Amino acid sequence: MANLNELELQNLRHLIGGHDTVATKLDTYAQQCTDPQIKSMLQNHANSARQTKQQLMTFLG
């Protein structure tokens, strides 16, 4: 892993936080949704955001 400078680290943290926020919001929208197709789409996108967050977090280690 390459060493990150301060700006890269801040940007990475911002991206991680953004994906976390998106996943949480999409989960909330899916819980409130009554259309099964839209509910499934929202859940899939929430899971994708969580996976991307996890991938980004590997750069912190």
TrEMBL record:
Pfam families for the chain: Coat_F (PF07875)
Protein's UniProt name: Spore coat protein
Organism (species): Bacillus weihaiensis
